[in-house]
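Q: Got a minute? One more chain.
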Amino acid sequence: MLADRAKLADTARRYWDPEAQTRLRHEILRIQDERLRASVQRAYDLAPFFRDRFDAAGVHPRDIRGVSDLHHLPVFDKNDLRADEALHRPFGSYRCCGPRESIRFATSTGTSGRPTITLWTAKDLALEFELSARTNWRAGMRPGDTVVNAHPGYTNGGESFIVGDCRYMGMLPISLGPPTTPEDAARALRLLEGIDVDWWRLYPAAAQRFREAAAQYDISVRLPPAEQTGPLAQYDRLSAGQECISVLGGSCAPGNGAHIAEDYAIVEVLDIATLQPVDDGERGLLVVTSLDRDNPMIRYNLGDVVRLDSNPCECGETSRRGFYEGRVQDIVPVGDQSILPIDVWLELPPAVEFTLVRRPDADHLVVRIDHEPASDLGDRLEARLNVAVVIEQSPAGSLARAAFKSKRVIDEAASSCLTTGSG
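A: Always. Here it is, folded:
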C-alpha cells in the first residue's frame, strides 16, 4: 500500500494534508458532528456490544445530533472488550466487520492484561496509514528515508504497523525486534553497521538497551541521543490504541504536544473519579470516539492520563494538542497527590533507570535509582511534587531492564522503616 504519488513527490510542502490540518475550528466541529451521527448509527445497527450498551443507557442514535450529545453515551474500557471477547469468542461482538471483511489481524501487547484482538478492514488500515503519515511528515520523515524499529512482531500489531506506515510513505523499514539481552542488542546493531539510519522508532527502554550494548561491545552505530527518548518524548505522539486509532496525533516540535486528528476522532479528557470533563490543561482520562471507520469505537477509555492544549499553535495547524502523561495504573498516590513516573523523570538525567515504589497509605514517595543522585535531587522533587521524598540508590544495573516498555512502578507492602530526607 503506497500513498498518492503526488503527495510523495512534493517533499517541500509543510503539511502532509494541508486542507485537513489547517481547517477552521467551526469546520472541524461540523465534520465531527456529521461523522459522529453516522458512526453511532453504524455501531448501533451492526455491533451488538454497542447496541446493548446504548439501550441500557436509554439512548438511541437519533438522540445523538452532534458532539454536544456525546456525554449521553456510556464510556467503556479494555476490560469490557476482554469480557465481550470471552463471551463471544474469539472476536467479540463490538465490531461491525468481522474476519471475512478484514485484511489484517493483530493482538495487543497484553501489558495491562489479556491481549485483545484487532481486525482492520482495507478502509480502516488505509486511514491509519494516512493519519500516521501526518505525524511522520511533521517530524521531517520523507520518502527514501531508512527507519529502524524494535517493536515485537508475530501477532503483535506494533511492528507490522510501523513497517506498513513506512512503506506507505516510500520509506525503508528495518525491524530489529526487542533487545531482550545485551547479546541480542549487539547482534542487531552489528547488522546496521555501515547503514545510514535516518530515524529510530523506539520506546525509551529499548533505546537505552541499545545504547548500553553499543558501549559494551564497542559498536559504531549512530543511535538517538538520550535526550530524544527522554521524558519530553512522551509528548511527541499520542495513541488511542490499535483497536481504536493507532496514531491519534503527533508533534510539530519536540515536547510541543501531539496535534490530534480531530477530523477522525473526538477526544475527551475526563476526571478519573467522576468521568466529568476537566478544564483545558488539567490531567484526566483519555476517552476517544473514532470517526468514519468500518469498525468505530464510541467513547473508549484508554486508561491513559493526558491533558489538552487548545491554544493556537505557531506551526499553523488548527487542531488541539494532547500531552500523554502516563497510565492510570501507574499513578502513585502519596497523601492527596497523584504522582506519575514522568513527574520524577523530568528531574532526572534522561537515560537513568529509576522506579517508584507504591505503598498503601504512603505519606512519602520512595524513588529507587541505579545512578548516584545529584545532591539536590530530593529537594527538587519535593518542590515539584509537594510531597516528602526518599531517594534509595540501588547498585548499578540492579533495577530491572525492559526490552520494550519500561516498568516504572512497583507495589510493596507498607514499610515501618523511613529513611530520612532528600538527596
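A: Residues 303 and 328 are 6 Å apart (CA to CA).
Q: Perfect, thanks.
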